[in-house]
Write a structure and sequence with these properties.
heterodimer; A: alpha+beta; four-stranded mixed β-sheet; elongated; B: alpha/beta; five-stranded mixed β-sheet; 26 helices; about 15% strand; globular
């Protein structure tokens, strides 16, 4: 396999790649290591960079095609960088019947982005999710791991502003 | 007492008993308590700040010796959280804010008078005790027995209320075969949805002679509208571990995995704490309770794929592959994880195990219906007054859940349907409100028990739109491996989309039913086989709504955007507010004269309706 290229994004990411290498090696002997390793990668970088895929493939001795196939199968893995705050509108049944669609529209307007996109200041990424199990508080949106409950379209602006500070 | 004294201590059933006795007589256990719900719902509502306020102010009032604050698992009524229960007199406070804490302490804990303003009120009458609230009286909390009573992050709490006694009993007084027998006698059926008898499943795996077997806990609770498993994981994680230990002993396994969905970070955290504590106490690991039984548990996190709740897909995912199901047989009990015999049960199923081992299978089977034993937890949500987590004996009528426990419809409108069983389930209309909630009765109505998600909808929900919602869901979550599910649901969604847009034809209904049959019969796994259910059940109970959409081009609930008409009434005074906000300039009219909306230009965004101050705009 081609030698892993040095990362061009500056020292930070290179340091992170070294950290990732340690993690991959620590998982190496574990059966079914690929997904936990990808989860670790996603949490270190906020997405899965190409350099990381090459490293994972090499150390775990898994074909690149398989690693890529697994990444694209699961919705939690992203191949592109995400914003600092990942806003996910719950589209579970309880939220849906209580107006989740209108929240999506309001967020799109407020952030001027579509679902799956990131704002130009790299602060927010907008996405939808499938039930976070907080149906008693519907409709909800998740901002990273925080739940915002009983959200109204008119309340979206306030939530976004709170995270801008 | 110093709990650390007992670390690594529990090396025999007698020592477990000794620990429990010590805990029961400890100062901590017997102190008066303020219970603060730390379930996912209440935390989201700010219960941790309430807890901090209690801790701080009890200290400053020198009450911290006499009273302790306990963070508990989900108490149930998520919609009225954060909830606080005062242990000594069972007072139930709702929607408590940190600034209310001072009043509770001064007036109630010191002064002895209940704070009326924080009580739950029914028809204008305040109810002070938790045990008197209809939400609680009408439930039968068995599996949720500890939720709200113990701190889920403290193994000592679990042991004090009798935790790990069932494990001790199984390991010392029963053979593996007897455990399986007891589970079989209990009639327990898998709580994940399909309702397969747990005893039979365990027996298959037990009989297999392979030296390596696995036991898996399916905590990939993906049904939208379901949060039962989340609440058990967060509120009583040791009951799951104990259930898995007993299952492992029964089938002869020494390694278990819990597959938790990544959307539940708090559940993962609490389960991780519980596993580590159990390991420290010697309840997981080698030579458990000195009986020579070895077992360990590892958590594997999901990565956001609904199909991984299907057992063969879940196994694929643990192995590090794309979570695509494979045909059965061979069933996992024969060839499962890494091709070894594997038992896979749902969270709630495992949580039932300690209960039925403690009281015996026959006693357990006294609750429920002829074919479905025990209790079931439901996640009650949608337009009910108190949404949250409830547990009732199997066979309890739906009406009791919606009206007696949930308090009825919150919007003042009429009940229209309850969606039960998520994307594999169906809608129960008003004329069947008395259906007993059990596997068979629900199947007869075209719904399923499923994992227990129950969404109540009032008249403002469009049933065709609900069907469209679920089709979109399964379309999105179909893994794409088999054609009937991947393509069939896509075609079905196209048709339903068309109907919602007013472009449907009468023959579309037949087409939908024909396609549904194919998808049901020919799909590889449960996801595809049940995917048409939401369409079929709405067609069965709300067919006239489909017909209205097709024939009259009308959505009676004004949900389907393309079929809505906005109209300006005579009361319009020509203020021009609506005209200014209309993004497509579809509103015409001179100042101080009646305006009108050009239907062809209108994009039905509804901005005009929300802008008008004179109620001059209607949508229908």
């Amino acid at each position: 396999m081609e030698k892993v290229k040095k990362c061009s994004c500056g020292n930070d990411e290179e340091g992170l790649l070294d950290r990732l290498e340690e993690i991959i090696i620590s998982f190496k002997e574990k059966p079914g290591a690929l997904i936990p390793v990808l989860q670790a990668t996603q949490s270190i970088f906020g997405y899965i960079p190409q350099e990381a895929i090459l490293k994972i493939s090499e150390i775990l001795n898994e074909p690149l095609s398989k690693v890529y196939g697994v990444i694209t199968f699961y919705s939690f893995f992203s191949l592109v960088p995400r914003g600092k705050y990942l806003i996910r509108v719950c589209m579970g049944t309880a939220c849906y019947v209580q107006g989740a669609n209108e929240l999506v529209t309001a967020l799109k307007q407020q952030l001027s982005i579509e679902i799956g996109e990131t704002t130009s200041d790299k602060l927010f990424t907008l996405d939808v999710g499938r039930c976070y199990g907080a149906c008693g508080l519907a409709p909800i949106i998740m901002v990273n791991d925080e739940v915002e409950q009983f959200v109204k379209p008119s309340g979206v602006k306030k939530i976004i502003n709170a995270y801008k500070k | 007492m110093d709990i650390n004294k007992y670390m690594h201590f529990v090396k025999s059933p007698a020592q477990l008993q000794e620990l429990r006795t010590a805990l029961l007589s400890s100062k901590e256990y017997n102190s008066e308590k303020v219970f603060v719900c730390a379930g996912g719902g209440c935390i989201a509502s700010g219960s941790m700040k309430v807890k901090d306020a209690f801790v701080k102010q009890l200290l400053s009032n020198n009450l911290n010796e006499k009273l302790s604050v306990m963070e508990t698992g989900c108490l149930g009524p998520c919609a009225i959280g954060p909830v606080v229960v005062i242990g000594k007199d069972d007072t139930f406070y709702q929607k408590v804010r940190p600034q209310d804490v001072k009043e509770i302490i001064d007036k109630h804990l010191i002064g002895g008078n209940v704070v009326e303003g924080l009580l739950h009120s029914i028809d204008g009458k305040n109810v002070s005790k938790k045990s008197e609230l209809p939400f609680f009286i009408n439930q039968d909390k068995q599996v949720l027995r500890n939720c709200g009573k113990i701190d889920p992050t403290k193994i000592a709490d679990y042991i004090a209320v009798g935790g790990y006694q069932a494990l001790s009993k199984a390991l010392t007084a029963m053979t593996g075969e007897q455990v399986v027998q007891e589970v079989t006698i209990s009639g327990l059926r898998g709580r994940g949805g399909a309702g397969f008898p747990t005893g039979i499943k365990w027996n298959f795996a037990r009989k297999n002679k392979d030296a390596t077997k696995y036991i898996l806990c399916n905590a990939d609770e993906g049904d939208p509208g379901a949060f039962m498993d989340r609440s058990i994981l967060e509120g009583d994680p040791h009951s799951i571990i104990e259930g898995m230990l007993i299952g492992a002993y029964a089938i002869g396994s020494s390694q278990g995995y819990v597959y938790v969905r990544a959307e539940y970070p708090l559940a993962v955290e609490r389960l991780q704490i519980a596993i580590e504590q159990a390991r420290t106490f010697g309840l997981i690991g080698e030579n458990i309770l000195g009986t020579g039984f070895n077992f360990d548990i590892e958590i594997r996190k999901g990565s956001g794929a609904f199909v991984c709740g299907e057992e063969t897909a879940l196994i694929q995912s643990i192995e590090g592959n794309r979570g695509e199901p494979r045909p059965r047989p061979p069933f996992p009990a024969e060839k499962g994880l890494w091709n070894k015999p594997t038992v896979l049960n749902n969270v709630e199923t495992f949580s039932n195990i300690p209960l039925l081992i403690n009281e015996g299978g026959a006693h357990y089977a006294e609750k429920g219906t002829e074919k479905s034993k025990g209790t079931k937890i439901f996640a009650l949500a949608g337009t009910v007054k108190i949404s949250g987590l409830v547990e009732v004996a199997i066979g309890t009528p739906l009406r009791k859940l919606v009206y007696d426990i949930g308090g009825g419809i919150s919007t003042g409108k009429k009940y229209k349907a309850a969606q039960i069983g998520g994307p594999s389930g169906g809608c129960i209309p008003a004329e069947h409100l008395d259906v007993p909630l059990d596997y068979e009765a629900l199947n007869k109505l075209g719904a399923i028990m499923g994992s227990g998600g129950l969404i109540v909808m009032d008249e403002s929900s469009c049933m065709v739109d609900v069907a469209r919602f679920f089709l979109e869901f399964v379309q999105d979550e179909s893994c794409g491996k088999c054609v009937p599910c991947r393509e069939g649901t896509a075609r079905m969604k196209q048709i339903v989309d068309r109907i919602c847009e007013g472009k449907g034809e009468m023959k579309d209904i037949d087409e939908l039913e024909k396609l549904a049959k194919t998808v049901t019969n020919a799909s590889l796994c449960g996801l595809g086989q049940t995917a048409p259910n939401p369409v079929l059940s709405t067609l069965r109970h709300f067919r006239e709504e489909y017909i209205e959409h097709i024939r009259d081009k009308k959505c009676r609930t004004a949900v389907c955007k393309e079929l809505i008409v906005f109209e300006i009434l005579d009361v319009c005074n020509g203020c021009q507010a609506c005209k200014k906000v209309c993004p497509v300039h579809a509103i015409h009219g001179e100042k101080k004269h009646l305006h009108n909306i050009d239907e062809a230009e209108c994009i039905r965004c509804g901005l005009c309706l929300s802008t008008c101050k004179f109620e001059a705009i209607v949508k229908y």
